[in-house]
Amino acid sequence: MSNTDNKNDSNASMSKRKKADTTISYIVLVLISIVWLFPFVGLLLQSFRSYDPKVEYGGMVDYLIPKTFSLDNYRFLFSGETNFIKWYGNTLVIAFFVALFQTIVVLCVSYALSRMRFKGRKLLMRFWLVLGMFPGFLTMICLYFLLKQFGLTQAGAVPGLILVAVASSGMGYYVCKGYFDTIPRALDEAAMIDGASRARIFFTMIIPMSKPIIIYTALVAFMGPWCDYIFASYIAFGHDESYNVAVAMTRWVWTNDYQGYFTRFCAGGILVAVPVTVLFMLLQNYYVEGVTGGAVKG
User: Fold this and answer.
1) Residue 140 falls within a domain, yes or no?
2) Are residues 118 and 43 in the same domain?
3) Which end of the chain has the lower number of beta carbons within 10 A, N or C?
4) Residue 242, CA distances (Å) to 141, 162, 189, 237 in order
């Protein structure tokens, strides 16, 4: 047998091995996807179930797949029998303003740490890094009494939550600073030779070149208050109109009528997931580019 035949057989065997590996990989990924999507499919199907207390449900299939589909749960959310619209509005307001102000703060802090050299800069970054290792809920009692002095609890919980989320946002500079470090400093130096100030360089040069990291920072900032439960329940405790959707809907499943409110909880969960899902689908390319661009040693 010639060397050419041996090479062809070797290439054919390698090709078969690659196809087999690829097939196995796809099968494993499909199985993982099914397991990952199963709870979401169940949530969606349950949201269309019209709960009837006279009907007895038995087995997982009866609970998962409704025999009849109805929009009763969604009608209940907007019927006025509950403050769901108010809770949803509170969550949107908190998430929007936190995303806006937190993005501004993070960009400014990251630019200063990336481009400027001042005494104590490295010590400050190390201190923030160590401080960020402690969970935020350790400060809950202190923050509660501080906010209470300014009337930013219960009825004033919405601005209080915005203030707390924005005030400590500068410590989340890591990814954004890493992205700024990838932008050549020669651009800043050339602009400064032409008489541009730091502010002009930041707003007219750095910001237009940093669209991926801006979107990444805004998305992360938006997600924080959107999913917040622990601190939001603590600050708005006992005041129904100041709840966000996470706190309010959790209280639904704490009622004695667990089965009746569970399907309404599922419907509310679907509506809560819509804005975040749409944002990620529209901006996922920028999100990935921002993460990979900022994952450098600064």
Assistant:
1) yes
2) no
3) N
4) 19, 13, 49, 9
